[in-house]
Specification:
The complex is a heterodimer. By secondary structure, chain A is α+β, with helices and mostly antiparallel strands. Chain A has 6 domains: 3-67 and 211-252, Nucleotidyltransferase, domain 5 (2-Layer Sandwich); 72-207, Rossmann fold (3-Layer(aba) Sandwich); 256-325 and 418-480, ATPase, nucleotide binding domain (Nucleotidyltransferase, domain 5, 2-Layer Sandwich); 329-415, no CATH class; 484-595, Dna Ligase, domain 1, CATH 3.30.1490; 610-680, no CATH class. Among the domains of chain B are: 9-224, no CATH class; 364-532, no CATH class. The chains are: A alpha+beta, B alpha+beta.
């Protein structure tokens, strides 16, 4: 089957595909106003014949950018009477305990667009106050008049009984068909009203924009006679169908970044790296993730944006730490003459000053060019010439002059500050978790990852850096290795041993039915699907629970000794103690369904023997590494021409179509049998 | 800890991050396996690593600010009693003694020694709020005790495990003298595992770098913190600054306010907080030991000098706290201290108020000023005993360039969370009828104070409620011309009709269907109301934060002007 993965970031659109058994790639600028342009261009550049594609995988930063820029739909929220402000109050906590100027999360819905309806369900799911449909109809009219585009409905205890939410949803969708309606139980059937509300509102807020975007994309592809499947990359590291993505865009928040980490995990397995850090530097941000035994860590929910004031999102997500430093991050000088880099980014348009589109804001890429670290003639495989003079002018104007520095000194300062910002972030995924970077390896990818990764690794003494094949489009490659994945949850509270058997079976049956329904809609056959149930268990009296794998409802009714033993072991492992004599209770049942892919061609390609695809003459040029006054004469090599087993010692620059590897003096590079580069850092530790 | 080992800058960074990461990991283990909501939701705990002299190596981030580097006091008492040679691997100690710790007895410290290559190298400890510790009233928060012996059992540096063997006598005493033994012993187990984890991690760190190197790094980290803090203190204009406010009463003599008076002296890079003129200790339980006064001074000091630095011994070297025995924040041994933390938010706000004229760009108006919470106690229909506790946020004061935040927990509570309504209704025989922002509760000003919260409980079984409202006579104040905020108030509505306002009351009986409404205070305003941007006023009205009547009164707002 022919398959392509397209990853649209803030700056670049990357494609990796497998066409007639061969890997194809392309990289092009993102057009923020209409991302389908970049999509089309990347297909064209890779010579993909759209009607012959069997599957298109896609990752995009559109959902998360909509939240971070607060540029989502005009949204409203409907709550149970008395609970209008649950969303604004949140949990009342102040994470920055000593900060008198703290900020708590700022709601994405204005209070004047938060409405209450008279209804109430209790914790057992019984209806205490019935919902009057007329109330909802009246509200729907009011929403229309206010020009509301998206609405979130979150009623108290809808995890236990979603009937009222369903009723409200039907009415809203009927009266106001253009409205993007999100019902909390459809997103997350788990108790805790604030976190569920926040997740539901996030879905509503990004919904219309993401849905429109995906609609445009689909129209384009179908217009090109695409007849295959289209799947979206989601935050949990798996993929989902286009239809589901349009209804639940909140689950594609980390759509872009996770694919690269999935790919890095597979590579780590292949290379036998037990503990490593995936480092992905693109145009606007740098992201890192700790990967243990080939698996990036998954978290049940996280916060979008700043840790103290960001928006809680309660769906499973690959644990990634991000910092606003990328090739396009703008360098600027404040009133006190402090030099900063980012978090603002020049994006694709106007892009760096060196793109020659008239921008006067110097960015990291401009500095790299001025320092001789990248080759203006070979950027993006030579398809885009870079203007060194324009880069120098911008650096001179915005940084050099104010600080009385030469252009080279200013450029060196910009690159150093960017590297320091990133090394703090990489440190956050390692030493902050008690892992010494000296005992890890880095897998560096993304357009700018191989260029800056080695500097970052040097700063925090990571001894080894791996630059995979196709580093510049590695996230798109990772997509080809991601499996279809769905996470479902149902709250079920009760004491183990005293659970009502029929209720337990019902919950499992409902979960399985929801999953099968989803499989059917996405045409996933039983033969490839893998069902894994988990029970969130705890000792009676505890609050936090641990997810323990269970084969089915039988483990929770009748003889429960097996699940209890599994729990005791896990509890001891995580928290250093177990209470064998304590009663236990269940809180949630979870179901994770994954569907094996029919093809493993991307994995095979990553591990297959490497042979040079081109020949090229070695050249050399002056490159500034550590002293603007003393450039090093560096060897310049073309990666597609380097054979397996090739070795060199820096200073050197290894160029390839979509990326550049900056090798520092003394660092030793080896090309592996499969064509990945291993860089052993000089004097590490 | 003096030694000549080299502290390589990168090793210092690794040690700096590691020791805090270990404390955070301890906190996570405790929080995730704890049995009571005061730990897992309210996060009324702290944990960390202590050196062999009782000094704080590191403390977890988040958690309760008032637990500032005060675990050392508890550990020092153990060192004094047993000597460093008196600790063996496998020992676990329990400590909540009122005279030594100065906090209500519910706050139980569990710690264990950390060994490396056969030598004792430090301790790992946690302090956590147990639901109940025995005594004449359930939980805590009773206003009726007059000496500590009525407030629960005291355990002073006792080994609950000795070389891995449990002291069954002590275990049995605890089990038989607290109201929720499963929760208490569950928390004890969680705290023990948390301490053992910390000790294990610290030993791993020493194994990686060697004891001398790690200790040199820790010294370096303290010195760096101290240097940064001194630099900030030196920027504050020298002088003597005084401020005064008051608490309503001690819950017993209702017409007698309690004086909160502080003096701050800045001299170069030295910062002195003098608490000599605080109200004398009271006969009721509104007292704390000296550690309460020190905690209040430290919170205010840290907020002003190093809000973003990790907590360690070095952060407080330039702070001097003057505090004679016998005040409300330095009560003498034997005094009732059940409500030990009640005076602290106001004391902290008063220290900030003293410095407001000297630091107009740094000090906001007063915040809600109390700890904000409730407890309901009774028996479910199946006969089981329950105790519901929750914490409420309130308004924070307007700030030099922006409005105060709404609905946030007090300055004494950091990453403390309110309890989800759905969780409370799953667990307890109550229903919550309303959880909302309290409109019109913020103080007027150029930058207005944040709003308080309203939460209304309806009880479904006969039970009792304990209410402790403070600061109803001196509500959260404005600064630089800003107005005061609405104060705390609670109302009990009988299902049979009739309602009454309650400020303080212990174990007030309720019948099924009775409702209790809690309205929490807002924050004070910053700057004169007539300097407020009219668009901000119009928005407050449009969003329902402020009624148009009050907008007219405070800001001369008219609907036409808004358009």
């Amino acid at each position: 089957m022919n398959i392509v993965g397209v990853d649209i970031g803030g700056t670049f659109t990357d494609l990796v595909g497998c066409i007639d058994g061969k890997i194809v790639t392309s990289k092009t600028s993102t057009t923020p106003a209409d991302p389908t342009i970049g999509f089309a261009k990347s297909l064209e550049l890779a010579h993909c014949n759209v009607p012959e594609l069997g599957e298109v995988l896609h990752g995009s930063t559109i959902a998360i950018n909509t939240v971070l820029e607060r540029k989502g739909a005009k949204s409203a929220l409907i709550t149970t009477k008395g609970f209008r402000d649950v969303y604004a109050i949140g949990r009342g906590n102040r994470i920055e305990a000593f900060n008198l100027f703290f900020h708590r999360p700022k709601p994405l819905v204005e209070r004047r667009f938060t409405f209450e309806v008279n209804e109430r369900v209790n914790a057992s799911g019984e209806i205490v106050t019935p919902l009057d449909p007329q109330d909802v109809e009246a509200l729907a009219e009011q929403l229309k008049q206010n020009g509301i585009e998206a609405i979130a409905v979150c009623f108290l205890h809808s995890w236990a009984n979603p009937d009222h939410e369903r009723m409200a949803g039907e009415i809203l969708r009927r009266v106001h068909p253009d409205l993007f309606v999100t019902l909390s139980h459809e997103i997350l059937r788990e108790f805790r009203e604030y976190e569920r509300t926040s997740t539901t509102v996030l879905n509503a807020f990004v919904g219309p924009r993401v849905s429109n975007y995906l609609g445009t994309l689909e129209t384009y592809l179908r217009g090109e006679n695409f007849a295959g499947k289209m799947n979206m990359m989601r935050s949990n590291g798996g993929v989902m169908s286009l239809d589901q993505a349009r209804a639940q865009p909140v689950s594609m928040m980390e759509s872009g970044p996770v694919a690269g980490m999935i790919g890095a995990g597979r590579l780590a397995q292949h290379l036998g790296l037990k503990q490593c850090i995936g480092f992905d530097m693109g145009g606007t941000t740098a992201k890192s993730s700790l990967i243990t035994n080939g698996e990036p860590a998954i978290e049940e929910g996280y916060v979008i944006g700043d840790h103290a004031s960001g928006q809680p999102m309660q769906l499973p997500v690959v644990d990634i730490v991000e910092v606003g430093a990328g090739g396009g991050s703008i360098a600027w000088v404040d009133e006190a003459l402090g030099l900063h880099v980012g978090p603002r980014s020049a994006g694709a348009d106007p892009g760096p000053a060196c793109y020659g589109k008239g921008s006067l804001d110097p960015v990291v890429t401009d500095a790299d060019l001025v320092l001789g670290r990248i080759n203006g003639g070979r950027f993006l495989g030579g398809s885009m010439g870079l203007d060194v003079a324009a880069a120098e002018r911008a650096i001179e104007l915005k940084v050099g002059k104010p600080l009385s520095l030469s252009v080279k000194e200013a450029a060196f300062g910009i690159a150093t500050i960017a590297d320091t910002n990133m090394s703090l972030s990489v440190r956050a995924v390692s030493v902050n978790k008690g892992v010494d970077p000296r005992e890890t390896a880095m897998i560096a990818f993304g357009g700018a990852g191989p260029l800056h990764g080695i500097s970052v690794a040097r700063q925090i003494f990571i001894p080894k850096v791996v630059i995979p094949k196709l580093p510049g489009t590695f996230s798109a490659l990772g997509m080809l290795m991601a499996t279809w994945r769905q996470d479902f949850v149902r709250t079920l509270v009760g004491r183990l041993g005293a659970l009502q058997e029929s209720l337990v079976r019902q919950v499992f049956d409902e979960l399985a039915a929801t999953g099968k329904d989803r499989m059917q809609r996405d045409q996933i056959s039983d033969a490839v699907a893998d069902f894994r149930f988990y029970a969130d268990l705890r000792y009676v009296g505890q609050e936090h629970a641990l997810a323990i794998p269970v084969s089915g409802p039988d483990m929770l009714v009748g003889d429960t000794s097996k699940v209890r033993k599994l729990f005791d072991i896990e509890h001891d492992l995580r928290y250093g103690q177990a209470a064998m004599e304590e009663n236990m209770e269940i809180v949630n049942v979870r179901l994770v369904i994954t569907a094996r892919k029919d093809d493993t061609i991307a994995e095979e390609w990553m591990n297959q023997d490497w042979f040079p695809t081109e020949t090229a003459e070695e050249t050399s040029r002056d490159v500034i590494y550590d002293d603007p006054a003393k450039p090093h004469r560096a060897r310049v090599l073309w990666r597609p021409a380097l054979p397996a087993g090739f070795e060199l010692t820096g200073p050197a620059v290894i160029e390839e179509p979509n990326s550049t590897i900056l090798v520092h003096p003394g660092d030793k590079v080896t090309v592996t049998k499969s064509g990945h580069l291993i860089v052993d850092i000089a004097n590490a530790g | 800890m003096k030694n000549n080992a080299q502290a390589h800058p990168i090793t210092v960074e690794v040690v700096r991050n590691s020791i805090v990461a270990y404390a955070d990991e301890m906190a996570n283990a405790l929080c995730k396996s704890a049995y009571n909501m005061m730990i897992y939701e309210v996060r009324d705990f702290c944990c960390g690593l202590i050196d062999t002299q009782g000094r704080m190596i590191s403390q977890n981030r988040g958690g309760l600010p008032i637990f500032l580097a005060d675990l050392g006091v508890a550990v020092k008492d153990g060192i004094k009693r047993y000597g460093l040679d008196g600790f063996k691997p496998g020992d676990v100690l329990i400590m909540n003694h009122g005279e030594v710790c100065g906090q209500h007895l519910n706050n139980v410290v569990i710690y264990c020694p950390c060994f490396f290559e056969g030598e004792i190298v430090g301790f790992a400890a946690s302090r956590a709020h147990w639901v109940d510790i025995g005594g004449m009233r359930i939980g805590f928060g009773s206003t009726i005790t007059s000496e500590i012996f009525a407030e629960g059992i005291q355990m002073r540096s006792l080994k609950i495990f000795e070389e891995g063997k449990r002291n069954d006598t002590l275990w049995q005493i605890i089990k038989d003298n607290v109201r929720f033994p499963e929760a208490a012993l569950g928390d004890l187990r969680a705290q023990m595992a948390c301490a053992q984890l910390g000790a294990r991690r610290y030993a791993e760190l020493l194994a990686r770098y060697g004891r001398a190197t790690v200790e040199a790094c820790i010294e370096k980290i303290w010195d760096q913190a101290d240097l940064k803090v001194r630099h900030v203190v030196a920027q504050i204009p020298d002088g003597v600054y005084t401020a005064e406010s008051a608490l309503d009463n001690d819950g017993r003599t209702l017409d007698k306010p309690i004086r909160i008076k502080v003096t701050v002296e800045i001299e170069g890079d030295k910062f002195t907080v003098d608490l000599s003129e605080m109200n004398p200790q009271t006969p009721g339980p509104l007292n704390s030991g000296e550690s309460g006064g020190i905690a209040a001074a430290r919170v205010a000091f840290k907020a002003l000098t190093s809000p973003d630095l990790d907590v360690n011994e070095g952060c407080f070297r330039s702070l001097n706290v003057v505090i004679p025995p016998g005040t409300i924040v330095s009560a003498r041994p034997g005094a009732a201290i059940g409500l030990w933390s009640i005076a602290l938010p106001t004391t902290i706000d008063t220290i900030l108020k003293a410095l407001a004229p000297a630091l107009p760009d740094v000090v906001p108006a007063a915040h809600k000023g109390d700890m904000g919470g409730c407890s309901f106690y009774g028996f479910r229909n199946d006969g089981s005993r329950f105790l519901l506790m929750n914490i409420f946020g309130g308004g924070w004061g307007g700030r030099p360039a922006e409005d105060g935040e709404d609905a946030s927990v007090s300055v004494c509570q950091g990453d403390v969370r309110n309890s989800p309504v759905e969780l409370q209704e799953i667990r307890y025989p109550i229903m919550v009828d309303e959880h909302a922002l309290r409109e019109n509760s913020g103080g007027a000003g150029k930058y207005r104070g944040g709003l308080g919260v309203r939460i209304t409980y309806r009880v479904l079984v006969p039970c009792k409620v304990t209410i402790n409202n403070e600061r109803t006579k001196i509500p959260p104040w404005g600064v630089h011309g800003g107005g005061d905020a609405a104060h705390n108030i609670s109302v009990i509505e009988s299902h049979a009709g009739g309602e009454r306002t309650v400020f303080k009351g212990t174990e007030i009986p309720l019948e099924p269907g009775d409702r209790v409404l809690f309205d929490t205070a807002g924050g004070g305003g910053y700057g004169k109301p007539d300097e407020r941007d009219p668009r901000a006023v119009a928005n407050d009205v449009a969003q329902g934060y402020l009624s148009s009547d009050l907008a007219r009164k405070y800001y001369n707002y008219t609907a036409q002007a808004a358009e």
